[in-house]
């Protein structure tokens, strides 16, 4: 009797162990499938319909994730990007694709998620005026950047700032922002960032490979390596 019970117990343990293994394998497969496709150490982002700075057929692609409340993003845009733009983007060697990763307001538990509102604003500019309007609005937002610990990118403030973007229909922009018409586009960018385990902003990928720093020297070295 004891042996029979022991045998049944062993079978039960074996069945339970097998079921647990199956569940773990299934979860692992789901996690892999839910992430962006990778080739080696490179991540393949879905860049369809994203704002692009530079020539579409440039051999090197920079994907830059930013939050408009991020001081380091402002530093990248104002201190390092001009050199990168002059050497690589304006010469047709590389193009830059902008992606939103608005997380700072939520991380700081601010009463208004103005990280996301700012991202929606540049997307509203993009809807109207394409990549050029997106880039102009982006530069204006970074110049107007307030503290990352305070709400500054309110809808009213963003509408005021949009008035400096030449060519924008301000009424259409206001409607777009008030109705949260671009929230889906921002959410899609954020999901790509999360799926790729983007750890912060700015995060810069050169041909799908994460650059270890956002300074011009590091980004230039990554572009040069990709061009070889």
UniProtKB/TrEMBL annotation:
Keywords on record: Disulfide bond, Membrane, Oxidoreductase, Redox-active center, Signal, Transmembrane, Transmembrane helix
Membrane-crossing segments per the record: 12-32
Domain of life assignment: Bacteria
Pfam families on file: Thioredoxin_4
Keyword Protein biosynthesis belongs to the record: no
Keyword Transmembrane helix (UniProt): yes
Ranges for domain Thioredoxin: 23-228
Similarity annotation: Belongs to the thioredoxin family. DsbA subfamily.
Protein name: Disulfide bond formation protein D
Species in which this protein is naturally found: Deinococcus carri
């Amino acid at each position: 009797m004891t042996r029979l019970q022991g045998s049944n117990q062993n079978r039960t343990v074996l069945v339970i162990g097998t079921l647990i293994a199956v569940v773990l394998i299934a979860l692992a497969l789901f996690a892999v499938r839910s992430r962006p496709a990778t080739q080696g150490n490179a991540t393949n982002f879905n860049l369809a319909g994203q704002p692009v700075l530079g020539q579409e057929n440039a051999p090197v692609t920079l994907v830059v994730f930013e939050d408009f409340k991020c001081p380091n993003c402002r530093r990248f845009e104002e201190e390092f990007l001009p050199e990168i733009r002059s050497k690589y983007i304006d010469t047709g060697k590389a193009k830059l694709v902008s992606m939103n990763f608005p997380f700072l307001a939520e991380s700081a538990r601010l009463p208004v998620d103005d990280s996301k509102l700012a991202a929606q604003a540049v997307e509203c500019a993009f809807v109207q005026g394409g990549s050029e309007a997106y880039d102009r609005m982006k530069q204006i937002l970074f110049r107007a950047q307030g503290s990352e610990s305070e709400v500054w990118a309110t809808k009213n403030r963003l509408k005021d700032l949009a008035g400096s973007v030449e060519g924008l229909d301000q009424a259409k922009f206001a409607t777009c922002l008030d109705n949260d018409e671009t929230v889906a586009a921002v959410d899609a960018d954020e999901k790509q960032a999360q799926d790729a385990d983007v750890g912060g902003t700015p995060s810069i990928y050169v041909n799908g490979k994460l650059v270890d720093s956002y300074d011009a020297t590091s980004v230039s070295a990554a572009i040069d390596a990709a061009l070889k």
